[in-house]
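Entry 0007
Protein: GST C-terminal domain-containing protein
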Amino acid sequence: MLTHSKVDILKFASKDGAYNRMASQFRNTVSSESGALFAPEINRCHLYMSRFGGAHWHMDDKGWRFSTEEEVADKSAIAGTLDHLRFTVALLWDKKEQTIVNNESSEMIWMLNTEFNSVIEPKYRDVDIYLKELRSQIDELNCWIYYTIKNDVYKAGFATKQHLDKLEALLKDNITKDQKNKFLTGVTLDKADIRLYSTLVRFDAVYHQHFKCNIKMLRHDYPYIHDWLRLLYRKISGF
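Output (structure tokens):
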């Protein structure tokens, strides 16, 4: 049976007590280009992710806490050269090269959107959550979402409320212009919605109670955000 020492998550704060998110350490890419080190192949990659409200319950001082024998073997393979780094989920593991490819979620979403088209069923190849004509708008939204919402739930307090107010206004404005504009950039579900969903779907249950983001709740105080969440969760396969 594997055992792990309890981690003090406050050690991840800076010396002044503020939360400063560590930059993702692994930034390689699965690529369909000829000669790529990490090429798309069936059963080559393994995606580790947390199904819980907060991944820190499964972390130790080096990051994500691997628990099964297979996962420990994977972790042992990288322990020597990468022992000074802390690896977090989501994490893309290459079983062929026995190493971590990437642990930056925004980049993995992009890879899964385009780079595996050659090995998936034809009916899924036309799915595109990063349309060329919307990329500048999606990138702008993603930057704002990351720094003002996804990161602020860890900083907590009034800043989070202010940014949720802006998000509520954005969704309300979209619907007011056209009832079909149910998503962040309008009528199309894209990368911006997917990245925001992973934070807001656990806001009331986790961040509101445990991260001091308790000024307002989405289901009571933000009807447009709540409707957007319900649409994704109840109506769209995959959420």
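Curator remark: Residues 158-177 form the longest helix (20 residues). The radius of gyration is 19 Å.
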